[in-house]
């Protein structure tokens, strides 16, 4: 058994803490966070700032920050440390044995990832989301609670799909796109920006 560092102690970090505790894999769990050093968060101590990851060795760690760009920035800070980035998957998630999941990704309770899909590094597959067959999700993306991605879909890097959004089958959503909560994507989205509505329209 080893020790786990959760980087980020906000709401997302507390959810990951609950998931990590259920696994009984780590002897010790602690937080790193720039703003709450020394505090106890749900009984777990914040032992230092984020850059402390580069001055310690032999820990497992997970980046528990919801914002895609911030999560990628922390990944770049930590990737050359002598620690191990882990993947955390809730026991209630349903995942095909043909699925590939990248390091640092978290798969939240009651999510479904179907056959031959790929989820790249440091993604968030949030509670109750569904990812259908042959889908590829780029690194540092966030699939929010209740979202549905239909089959043969390609999601770029650092995409944010809002809660209860839907992407129909065969669609491509390019990198750095935000899809608003409850929106429906029925055709390819190629231009970076924010899209809302059903079907979506670019608003920003």
From TrEMBL:
Domain PglD N-terminal: 4-76
Entry keywords, A to Z: Acyltransferase, Transferase
PANTHER family reported for this sequence: ACETYLTRANSFERASE (PTHR43300), UDP-N-ACETYLBACILLOSAMINE N-ACETYLTRANSFERASE (PTHR43300:SF7)
Family annotation (Pfam families): PglD_N
GO MF, one annotated term: acyltransferase activity
Active-site residues, as the UniProt record annotates them: 133
Site-annotated residues for Increases basicity of active site His: 134
Protein's UniProt keywords contain DNA damage: no
Origin superkingdom: Bacteria
Protein name: Sugar O-acyltransferase, sialic acid O-acetyltransferase, NeuD family
Chain positions recorded as acetyl-CoA binding sites: 142
Residue numbers binding substrate: 66
């Amino acid at each position: 058994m080893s020790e786990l560092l959760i980087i980020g102690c906000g709401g997302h970090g507390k959810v990951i803490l609950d998931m990590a505790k259920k696994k009984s894999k780590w002897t010790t769990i602690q937080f790193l966070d720039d703003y709450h050093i020394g505090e106890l968060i749900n009984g777990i101590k914040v032992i230092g700032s984020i850059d402390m990851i580069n001055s310690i060795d032999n820990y497992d760690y997970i980046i528990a920050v919801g914002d895609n760009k911030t999560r990628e920035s922390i990944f770049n800070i930590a990737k050359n440390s002598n620690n191990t980035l882990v993947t955390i998957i809730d026991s209630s998630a349903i995942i095909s044995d043909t699925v590939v999941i990248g390091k640092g990704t978290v798969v939240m309770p009651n999510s479904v990832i179907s056959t031959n899909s790929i989820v790249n590094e440091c993604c968030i597959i949030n509670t109750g989301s569904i990812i259908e067959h042959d889908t590829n999700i780029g690194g540092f993306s966030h699939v929010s609670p209740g979202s549905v991605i239909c089959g043969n879909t390609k999601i770029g890097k650092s995409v944010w799909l809002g809660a209860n959004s839907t992407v129909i089958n065969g669609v491509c959503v390019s990198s750095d796109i935000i899809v608003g909560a409850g929106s429906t994507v029925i055709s390819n989205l190629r231009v970076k920006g924010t899209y809302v509505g059903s079907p979506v329209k670019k608003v920003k």
